[in-house]
Amino acid sequence: MILGDACKLLEADVVWGDEHLCSEIQTACGADLMSDVLAYTKEKTLLLTGLTNIQVVRTAEISDLTAIVFVRGKRPGRELIQMAAAKGIPILATDLPMFESCGILFKNGVKGCARRVIPGEA
Amino acid sequence: MKPETGIMIEFPLTGSDFEKAGEASSKIKRVLQQIGIRPEIIRRIAISAYEAELNVIIHAFRGVIRANIQPDCTTVSVEDEGPGIPNIELAMKEGYSTAPDHIREMGFGAGMGLPNMARCADEFSIQSKVGEGTQIVMTIRH
């Protein structure tokens, strides 16, 4: 799926990064704990979060994430948007809560990025 | 292109300076990108550096992060002056954390930092003295 499809499905606003809507999303991750994002995500992952501090952008940059979606109506501040733009990380915002957002993407074929979902499965 | 003679970069870190938390690791990442290290290797170096950098900001008074980029590997070393870790074995357990609530509210302090560094690095060593500080050395082969 491309980021633009995820944006439509989540009825999200593009806060920054219109030109990146063709970026590919392989997996997605819903988390308010950046520690977990650093430990468990893969690259080219879409991060859904309710946390709006600048460490979210840092974490996305360090982990090579595709984009950030702020859920449940959270809107990032100017400082975060400026940092995301400087680093080329698209920012979306949806009024949908975390559970619904993740559910919609999962139902439409976006996989999670857990290291191991079922024991024995890579 | 890989560095032929090696590159050493170093940044000072200040405890509780959350505005700049991650800036040093971001700069290290950019240097690695410029010299053409493979993205999956850069990601491991950047994540281990960022976790170590955050630990200094969260727990210590001050510190320094260094990246020694050689043709075949990168070594990230982080030294801090801080409270030190009384029980390293416990600190290495996933989920164990001594971070205060305001750190958790920022999305960190889940007790994943040290185990994540060890997982990302090919070689990982940690030394700590209570009341003095902590040293971490991580090597990632290219």
From TrEMBL, chain A:
<feature type="domain" description="DRTGG">
    <location>
        <begin position="7"/>
        <end position="99"/>
    </location>
</feature>
<dbReference type="InterPro" id="IPR028979">
    <property type="entry name" value="Ser_kin/Pase_Hpr-like_N_sf"/>
</dbReference>
<protein>
    <recommendedName>
        <fullName>DRTGG domain-containing protein</fullName>
    </recommendedName>
</protein>
<dbReference type="Pfam" id="PF07085">
    <property type="entry name" value="DRTGG"/>
</dbReference>
<dbReference type="InterPro" id="IPR010766">
    <property type="entry name" value="DRTGG"/>
</dbReference>
